[in-house]
Design a protein that fits this description.
CATH class of the largest domain in chain B: Alpha Beta
CATH superfamily of the largest domain in chain B: P-loop containing nucleotide triphosphate hydrolases
Largest interface: A-B, 30 and 41 residues
Strand order of the largest sheet of chain B: 5-6-7-3-8
Distance between the termini of chain B: 49 Å
Oligomer: heterotrimer
Radius of gyration of chain B: 21 Å
Distance between the termini of chain A: 28 Å
Number of domains of chain B: 2
Largest sheet of chain B: 5 strands, parallel
Number of helices of chain B: 9
Order of helices and strands of chain B: HHHHEEEHEEHHHEHEE
Order of helices and strands of chain A: HHHHHHHHHE
Helix content of chain B: 40-55%
Strand content of chain A: under 5%
Structural class of chain B: alpha/beta
Number of strands of chain B: 8
Chains: A mainly alpha, B alpha/beta, C alpha+beta
CATH topology of the largest domain in chain B: Rossmann fold
Strand content of chain B: 15-25%
Number of helices of chain A: 9
Shape of chain A: elongated
């Protein structure tokens, strides 16, 4: 438990020192929000949530890539791969929640007749899903550049695809539009339920990808055996 | 050059070469007396302190003692074969290193030294063969192994926690290791802002943190100045005397370095 | 005299010369330099001599002890040991043979 905590602490310190990443996390969602502010209320909220998801995934991608240099050594030093990715996730989730808070306040102030509770839920779920999404990309793809390209594609598709179509449910942030509709258009609880299920499924799937990819990359290789010293 | 400046420098250099306190004291007294009586300029009479200290250290070093046979085997490497495509990089390579022994792995560029060490460290899988480590393992790659945005103290805490050390313990041990390589890690410089040589010192200290039984060092002295290079071998000797098994990949092998086994990976029939 | 070659020659024989001087009586570093100078080997620096003395000491050819210097700092005096005397005797004989051959060849050149 304490090992996970140390990993989380150091991951937090790392992110805090990456000014570029913090800038992205703070400014991008705002840019997304402002770009749609004059149109229908739902649009700006959807965009800001998407912005949070994209920025968070990017931060997670960079954090994961940066960690690769040091993870083999940490493995040798006695950490299990679960300590490493869980610690990193904890740090990313913490950062995500802290940085989403001002946006929740912004929406609270700026928008009326919205189910604010649902908005909070969207942001929570977005952060929850975005972190493992970014880490999964960094685990699966060798370089940050490829990860960024995938993120761009995903965000682009998310914005363009018709949410009613079944293909769009494959995208990790589909739930944000579903629950967003519930929050803004005051529809029935079905939207909320569907969105929640989608988020939970995505979260579980992405966590599994991270766990398996990390476990494989940092696996104890079969040719090396440790014998306890008398 | 003033006598005492030169003498102070000589004292420091003698210590760095591992010359015993008492011997160094004698040498300094005799040299000072000579300078007093002759009135010579030290640089003219003895040369630069670094060079003179090296000569003295060599003259004073006892003949390699018949060292007691090493302790239990801590690292067993048997029959390692590694192919990349059709190229066989390592063919049936074996090595055994006992506690208190230093093994050097030498060979031409591209002879697979780093690959071999990576296999021993469990980072690369061989096509055949086995590695057994009796105890815990520390590894220092040629580069990398550090986190860009963390400062040295945080590295010590991170690795130390893995080894089960308390925070204070980890930090103090890390700083002591750094001091042995003539480096003060305090001051909160992020690893990405450290010079190449200093970053490698951090890498080396982290490898030894937590007192592993077996140490695998892949030319860890990249970017070290001459003094630090000597400090490095001093540290290797200290680890050896503490009963560790050490493997050093190097292409700068000096017979003075006190190495027990040499593994030459240069492929036969290609010299 | 060519410096490079001279220092090569010196490297080969300096320890024997030092033993030779010490065979007469014990001496310390600076005094040895003066004795060697008087015998014809001048320009020997402290940086050259003291390592030789350390090696002779390590090899057991000489032993050393400190003595008060009177008007200055204490001095480290070196004394030849029986082992050193033996080495000197053997080497002196070897040198005669060796130098004789070299001289024979070079004397012809000098004469021409």
């Amino acid at each position: 438990m304490s090992k996970t905590f140390v990993v989380a602490e150091m991951a937090l310190r790392e992110i805090a020192r990456r000014r570029g990443v913090l800038a992205i996390l703070l400014i991008f969602p705002l840019a997304f929000y402002l770009s749609r502010r004059d149109s229908h209320a739902g649009q700006s909220i959807r965009f800001v949530c998407l912005g949070i998801g994209w920025a968070m995934s990017t931060a997670a991608l960079f954090a994961g890539s940066a960690a690769r240099a040091v993870e083999p050594r940490l493995r040798l030093s006695g950490y299990r791969s679960s300590h490493l990715y869980l610690g990193r996730l904890a740090a990313l989730w913490t950062v995500g929640l802290l940085l989403s808070a001002p946006y929740y306040v912004l929406i609270r102030i700026d928008q009326e007749h919205i189910r604010y509770g649902a908005i909070a839920l969207i942001m929570l779920l977005t952060v929850a899903v975005a972190a493992p999404f970014g880490l999964a990309l960094s685990a699966a793809l060798p370089r940050e550049l490829e990860g960024m390209l995938v993120l761009l594609i995903v965000v682009g598709l998310q914005m363009m695809m018709d949410p009613a179509g079944s293909a769009s449910r494959l995208l990790p942030f589909w739930f944000s539009r579903e629950i967003g509709t519930y929050a803004v258009d005051h529809t029935d609880g079905g939207y909320l339920t569907r969105g929640l299920i989608h988020a939970v499924v995505c979260l579980a799937a992405l966590l599994a990808v991270v766990a398996v990819a990390s476990g494989y990359r940092l696996r104890q290789r079969s040719h090396l055996r440790f014998v306890a010293r008398r | 050059m003033r006598h005492d400046t030169w003498l102070d420098a000589l004292a420091g250099e003698l210590r760095r070469h591992g010359v015993a306190e008492q011997t160094a004291g004698n040498v300094l007294a005799e040299t000072a007396a000579h300078l007093w009586e002759s009135g010579d300029d030290p640089l003219r009479a003895f040369g630069p302190p670094q060079a003179y200290a090296a000569t003295v250290a060599e003259s004073v070093r006892p003949e390699p003692p018949r060292r007691a046979p090493g302790g239990p085997v801590l690292l067993e490497v048997v029959g390692i074969t590694k192919r990349y495509g059709r190229r066989t990089v390592l063919r049936e390579v074996s090595l055994a290193v006992r506690a208190g022994e230093v093994a050097a792995v030498v060979g031409a560029n591209g002879s697979g030294k780093s690959t071999f060490l990576g296999i021993c460290a469990g980072l690369v899988s061989p096509d055949r063969g086995e590695v057994r480590v009796h105890g815990s393992l520390g590894y220092c790659p040629q580069g990398g192994g550090t986190s860009d945005f963390l400062v040295p103290d945080e590295h010590f805490l991170l690795v130390g926690a893995g080894r089960g050390m308390s925070r204070a313990d980890a930090r103090d041990t890390g700083r002591a290791g750094a001091a042995a390589l003539d480096w003060d890690p305090r001051g909160g410089t992020q690893a990405r802002h450290l010079s190449g040589g200093t970053r490698q010192k951090l890498n080396l200290v982290l490898a030894g943190l937590g007192d592993p039984d077996v140490l695998l060092l892949d030319e860890p002295y990249q970017g070290f100045d001459q003094g630090s290079y000597l400090d490095f071998w001093q540290q290797v000797r200290r680890w050896r005397d503490a009963g560790k098994a050490i493997v050093v990949v190097t292409h700068l092998l000096n017979t003075r370095d006190g190495v027990d086994t040499v593994l030459d990976l240069t492929p036969r029939g290609r010299a | 005299m060519e410096l490079e070659r001279r220092s090569q020659w010196l490297r080969g024989v300096l320890d024997l010369c030092v033993l030779g001087v010490l065979a007469h009586r014990e001496s310390y570093g600076y005094e040895l330099i003066q004795s060697l100078h008087a015998a014809g080997l001048d320009g020997i620096q402290g940086g050259t001599l003291y390592p030789v003395l350390l090696r002779l000491q390590r090899g057991g050819q000489v032993v050393a002890h400190w003595r008060e210097g009177g008007s200055g700092p204490a001095r480290k005096y070196y004394r030849i040991t029986p082992a050193g005397t033996e080495t000197l005797r053997r080497s002196a004989a070897d040198w005669e043979a060796f130098a004789g051959g070299v001289s024979a060849i070079l004397r012809e050149v000098a004469a021409r």
